[in-house]
Design goal:
The chain has two domains: 119 residues, Rossmann fold; 80 residues. The chain has nine helices and seven strands, in the order βαβαβββαβαβααααα. The protein starts with 23 loop residues before the first strand and ends with a helix. InterPro entries: Bact_response_regulator (IPR050595), CheY-like_superfamily (IPR011006), Sig_transdc_resp-reg_receiver (IPR001789).
Length: 239
């Protein structure tokens, strides 16, 4: 190839300001709000983002291309992100960087045990934390050369994405059946609430999760979550 060919696209080389330029990050995340945060982090860092909202969609992506980085939420509607991490950690060729993410304080051990290279605790809003999690685990030849000024920037996802998540919870509450759905709902609501810094909703989700662990009744917890979700949807309509 003639390096002076004017029709040849220049290589996407990482820079100090955009250290993830040239990378493709596959984010496996069912929360629109959390995924919007990841989109902004990738945009600020120069990375290209691809999104899958469940394991099935993620596997379809992986049949077509191999991302530079995988960020997998551990609680997904059709299974656990731990299973996907384990599959990719032992695949050949391996995805260079595999990161787990969750709003569950106890999820990091499960992600690392499955083969993840690192873990991002929700909410993921710090640009410096996100970039360091990726860069510190990339092969040396894919990192930007020279010193890099760390931008201590905090991103703020669009609140409309949070309301989309609340609408999703309302749909699940209307159609739910089975214990697995209860567990998924507790995880999903808890993760979204922590990402949005909604302490009241996060406490309600934790109460549901605790009731599930004890094997106790959940009607009161479910009614509380349904009421809180409805309040947040009403706030959207009032805007």
């Amino acid at each position: 190839m003639d390096e002076f060919d004017p029709f040849t696209a220049p290589p996407r080389v990482p820079t100090a300001n955009r250290p993830l330029l040239g990378l493709t990050i596959l984010v496996v995340e069912d929360s629109r709000f959390a995924c919007e945060a990841m989109r902004l982090l990738c945009l600020r860092s120069g990375a290209r983002i691809r999104r899958a909202d469940c394991l099935r969609s993620a596997r379809r992506h992986l049949q077509v291309y191999r991302p530079s980085v995988l960020v997998a939420d551990l609680g997904l509607p059709d299974g656990s992100g731990v299973d996907l991490i384990a599959e990719l950690a032992h695949a050949t060729p391996r995805v260079p960087v595999i990161l787990g993410t969750s709003g569950d304080d106890h999820a990091e051990d499960a992600a690392l045990a499955a083969g993840a290279d690192g873990f991002l605790a929700k909410p993921v809003t710090s640009l410096a934390t996100f970039q360091q999690a990726v860069l510190s685990r990339l092969p040396a030849d894919q990192r930007p050369n020279g010193p890099r000024a760390v931008r201590d920037e905090v991103i703020e996802p669009d609140k409309m994405a949070f309301h989309d998540d609340m609408a999703h919870v309302a749909d699940v509450l209307n159609d739910m059946a089975g214990d697995k759905v209860l567990d998924y709902l507790a995880q999903f609501v808890g993760g979204v609430a922590r990402s949005a810094q909604d302490a009241t909703l996060a406490n309600a989700a934790e109460s549901l999760a605790a009731s599930r662990r004890r094997g106790g009744p959940v009607a009161t917890d479910m009614a509380r979550i349904a009421g809180l979700v409805q309040e947040r949807l009403e706030q959207k309509r009032a805007i």
